[in-house]
Structures are given as C-alpha cells and as structure tokens.
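User: Hey, quick favor. My workstation is busy. Could you predict this chain's structure for me?
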Amino acid sequence: MTGGFVYRGSRLPGLVGRYIFADFVSGRIFNIDATAQGVLEMGGGFLSGLAISSFGQGLDRELFVVDYGGGLYRITQ
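Assistant: No problem, here it is.
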C-alpha cells in the first residue's frame, strides 16, 4: 500500500475528510473515513492504471499521485 492524505480540497466534495491511498501493485486508489478504526476489509477502489509510488498535496489542497515511471497526476474524480 502507498500512503496518502486526508482530502481537504474543494473540487471533490464527496471526498472531504476521507483518507486517500493506493495499492502500488494493482494501481487501485481507495478512500476511507479518516476516523475509521480497527480492521477494515478493502474492496472496490478506482483502477488508475498507474504504479502509484507517492502522493502529494498542492497549495490548493488538491491531491496528486506520482507514478513509479515518473508521471505526476492530479486526482480529478
């Protein structure tokens, strides 16, 4: 798993307060309630087609993902 950020941007209101992270191998991006505790079983997720190695946050608090191959992508949906 590749750790991420709690979303605090404004472009995706449905994700505000949710922790965004990814599975490096499958390229899936997941989100969970940032206050979730205990053992969670993950399913679904958004298939990005990337090998996500890192996340970043812009000055506008929108999130970016970094692909292992060197690409930088803004999360838009």
